[in-house]
Amino acid sequence: MTDRPQNPQQAQQQEWPGSFLRMDPVPDHGETSYQGSGRLKGKTAIITGGDSGIGRAVAIAYAREGANVVISYLDEHEDARDTAQWVEKAGQQALLIAGDVTEAEHCRSIVAQTVERFGKIDIVVNNAAFQMTRSSLEEIGDDEFDRTMKTNLYAMFYICKAAVPHMPSGGSIINTASINADQPKPKLIAYSATKAAIVNFSGSLAALLAEKGIRANAVAPGPIWTPLIPATMPPEQVESFGSEVPLQRMGQPAELAPAYVMLASDESSYMSGATIAVTGGVAVI
């Protein structure tokens, strides 16, 4: 058994992009539980979507493992400042960079500001994501489809392309995919398509960057309790969110962080091109 929140959840909804501070229950990002052991000491990490959800949990874990953290986020300033405080409480530096990762120039600016501040980039976590739940193709506007592709795919490409020249041998790129890459959801058709592409991109990137000693992997989360859920799903779907997996509950962001730490650390030096499934019991092949 677990003391994690069980279904049904409280039906709730927020305006996109949402805030973890207004979620009930408030997600667990490892604030009181994650214990570091210096596995990322001296490293610098960029995390897109680092203000909340999985990105926030990874930021807290990385800081407690000894890394300085660059938190890229859209405009959720309160969430981002709160996350930065946890990084700083761990004795590490936090650099907050607000802006839209669908814009190539902003992605290049994230990398440039990181290099200016820290002199290098050891870890890149492409985690920012956009989705909307739609019941038919007719409901998906061209602009919405475009934003999904640009947030989930283009930003990953822009940031990787800009960051790789500043990454040393031993560097690690970790891209957030999804269980939907393997089991696409009909009401998340655009999002599911991007997540399948992320897995493929990560595999190609792993082979491409092997000669540089830079690894590329993906993490495929199942249903995780992040602001994206109440901000992009109808309240009745939020209420039962996570019930479909064998563990019959949603996962917490804190339950993802160890996978990202492992892939960022030197302990995974022979892992590249892999996809780590954290799905509550659903097999991802």
TrEMBL record:
Residues 1-37 are annotated as: Disordered. The keyword Oxidoreductase applies. It holds the Pfam family adh_short_C2. Residues 1-14 have a biased composition (Low complexity). Transmembrane segments: none annotated. PANTHER family: NADPH-DEPENDENT ALDEHYDE REDUCTASE 1, CHLOROPLASTIC, NADPH-DEPENDENT ALDEHYDE REDUCTASE-LIKE PROTEIN, CHLOROPLASTIC-RELATED. This is SDR family oxidoreductase. The lineage of its organism: Bacteria, Pseudomonadati, Pseudomonadota, Gammaproteobacteria, Enterobacterales.
